[in-house]
Each structure stands twice: as structure tokens, then as C-alpha cells.
Amino acid sequence: MNINASLFVQMVVFFLGAWVTMKYIWPPLINAIEERQKKIADGLAAANKGEKALAVATEQGKAIEAEARGRASSVVADGEKRAQAIVDEATAKAQVEADRIIANAHAEAAQVMQRAREELRNEVAVLAVAGAEQILAREVDKTAHAQLLEQLKAKL
């Protein structure tokens, strides 16, 4: 065969193969490649969007955590203030109760002292009468001298 004819046939087969490839094979390949590129681009955009959302969520979480710590510390401070107020109130009540008990003890002591004085006056009066009876060595009129003893008790 002739080399020119062979080259011509090869050239026709090549162009025919190129045309079939360009007409039937190339468009689905280009569509598949473009679709894959679009999916990759969408995935990268979603990843960037997710990273931004993660950063925002992290910042919000830190802000919420700081706010919660602030609230917790204020609750603790309020609790400590309330505890101190309760302690102060209990101390004041205890002081009032102690003052009342002391006042009652003083009053009771004064009453006991008054009773002791009265008993002492009575004993002194009895001893005075006994002494007067022995000195006079005669009978003493108890009714007449009772008034004198009462006056003596009042003076003591």
C-alpha cells in the first residue's frame, strides 16, 4: 500500500476517533469533572462555614462560662453575706438572752438578799426579845412588845 493512502486513512480514522470522543465521550467526562469540582467546592465552603460556626460557638461558650462563673461567685458571696447576717443575728439574740438571764439572776439574788435580811431581822428581833426576857427576868407582854419589835424591824 501506498504510504500516502495509509497516512490519509490514519488521519481519517484519527479525526473520526477524535470526533466520536468529542461528541459522545468528552461531554459526560466534563460534566462528571465539573460536578465533582462543584461538590468539592461546596464541601470546602461548608467546612469553612463550620469552622466559623465552631469559632462563634466556642466564643459563646466562653462567654456563657464566664457569666456562669460570675453568677456562681456572686451566689457564693451572697451566701457568705447571709451566713454572716445569720451569725450576727444569732449573736445579737444570744446577747439579749444572756442580758435577760443576767437580769433575772440579779433580780433573784436581790430577792434572796431581801428574804435573808427579813429572816435576819426576825431572828434579831427574836434574839432581842429573848435577851430582854432574860435581862428583865420577868414575863414580857408579847402584844405590847410586838409593836416595838415591828418598829425595830422597820429601822433595821
UniProtKB/TrEMBL annotation:
GO cellular component, one term: proton-transporting ATP synthase complex
One of the record's GO molecular function terms: proton-transporting ATPase activity, rotational mechanism
Membrane disposition: Single-pass membrane protein
Primary site of residence: membrane
Transmembrane segments annotated in the record for this chain: 7-26
Entry's localization field: Cell membrane; Endomembrane system
NCBIfam families: ATP_synt_b, PRK05759.1-2
Entry's family note: Belongs to the ATPase B chain family.
Subunit structure: F-type ATPases have 2 components, F(1) - the catalytic core - and F(0) - the membrane proton channel. F(1) has five subunits: alpha(3), beta(3), gamma(1), delta(1), epsilon(1). F(0) has three main subunits: a(1), b(2) and c(10-14). The alpha and beta chains form an alternating ring which encloses part of the gamma chain. F(1) is attached to F(0) by a central stalk formed by the gamma and epsilon chains, while a peripheral stalk is formed by the delta and b chains. F-type ATPases have 2 components, F(1) - the catalytic core - and F(0) - the membrane proton channel. F(1) has five subunits: alpha(3), beta(3), gamma(1), delta(1), epsilon(1). F(0) has four main subunits: a(1), b(2) and c(10-14). The alpha and beta chains form an alternating ring which encloses part of the gamma chain. F(1) is attached to F(0) by a central stalk formed by the gamma and epsilon chains, while a peripheral stalk is formed by the delta and b chains.
Name by which UniProt lists this protein: ATP synthase subunit b
